[in-house]
């Protein structure tokens, strides 16, 4: 196989064929990038990770106090998790992903940020359905049923309307959002990445489940389009 393109892993999953690959983009000076595909769709690329990092920065920016316990829903290539760990107040990070192969990539060092994430004692990986745990009474941590968290950072679906699986839809409704809020401490924060522009209807649902909610547009350079692209980060805060 060419050194300019390498398929690092291929796994069949309940959501379709999952592929991790690495390639050099000659159009960008030979830059090495990692890409993840699920079925026919591109899930993520290391070429674009500004919004994943902004999800952590925005989600943690307004938290008060110290020694925060944080959940990241969706591991991907690990950029949100790494950005969260960069905050010295994060005491523990529980990363939940439905696909065991994605966790394996990090544990085996196939994903570029894997050694850094796995080497941080604050990090714990959990293979589970984030949405099912969010709407359960026991919550996110099976080792501590009922455990609450200071922040939940979610990057799984493309947006509240563009889903990887139709079963996720109930989470984005009023009842699902209220169930999530119950797993947060007072003053806790829920933050969500979306590839769509701000959605007023979803923002209203967030506002009904949390004390306040807002949408931030995050722009980033897109060398493939020779311009800028934009995504949305929603931030909702639970009342004290």
Describe it:
The protein is an alpha/beta fold and 240 residues long. The chain has helices spanning 50-61, 79-85, 100-108, 114-118, 130-134, 174-181, 200-209; strands at residues 5-13, 16-25, 31-38, 41-45, 68-73, 90-97, 123-127, 149-154, 184-194, 212-222, 227-237. The strands form two sheets. It has a seven-stranded mixed beta sheet with strand order 7-6-5-8-9-11-10. The protein has a four-stranded antiparallel beta sheet with strand order 1-2-3-4, with no helix packed on it. The longest helix is centred in the first third of the chain and has 12 residues, at 50-61. The model has no long low-confidence stretch (mean pLDDT 93).
Q: What is the CATH third-level topology name of the largest domain?
A: Rossmann fold
Average pLDDT score = 93
Residue fraction in strands: 35-45%
Measured distance between first and last alpha carbons: 56 Å
* Count of distinct structural domains: 2
Determine the number of helices (DSSP H or I, runs of at least 4 residues): 7
Low-pLDDT stretches are: none
CATH superfamily of the largest domain: Vaccinia Virus protein VP39
Lateral strand order in the biggest sheet: 7-6-5-8-9-11-10
Number of strands: 11
Silhouette: globular
């Amino acid at each position: 196989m060419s050194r300019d393109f390498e398929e690092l892993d291929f796994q069949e999953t309940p959501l379709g064929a999952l592929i991790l690959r690495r390639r050099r983009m000659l159009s960008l000076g030979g830059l090495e990038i990692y890409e993840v595909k699920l079925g026919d769709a591109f899930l993520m690329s290391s070429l674009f990770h500004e919004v994943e990092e902004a999800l952590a920065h925005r989600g943690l920016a307004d938290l008060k106090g110290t020694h925060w316990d944080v959940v990241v829903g969706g591991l991907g290539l690990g950029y949100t998790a790494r950005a969260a760990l960069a905050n010295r107040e994060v005491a523990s990070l529980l990363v939940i992903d439905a696909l065991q192969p994605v966790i394996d990539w990090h544990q085996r060092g196939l994903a570029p940020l894997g050694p850094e994430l796995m080497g941080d004692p604050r990090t714990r990986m959990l293979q589970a359905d984030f949405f099912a745990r969010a709407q359960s009474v026991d919550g996110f941590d099976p080792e501590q049923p009922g455990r609450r968290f200071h922040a939940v950072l979610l990057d799984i679906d493309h947006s509240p309307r563009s889903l990887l699986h139709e079963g996720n839809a109930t989470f984005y409704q009023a009842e699902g959002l209220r169930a999530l809020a119950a797993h947060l401490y007072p003053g806790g924060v829920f933050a969500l990445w979306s590839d769509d522009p701000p959605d007023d209807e979803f923002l209203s649902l967030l506002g009904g489940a949390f004390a306040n909610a807002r949408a931030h547009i995050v722009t980033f350079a897109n060398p493939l389009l020779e311009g800028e692209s934009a995504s949305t980060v929603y931030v909702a805060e639970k009342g004290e």
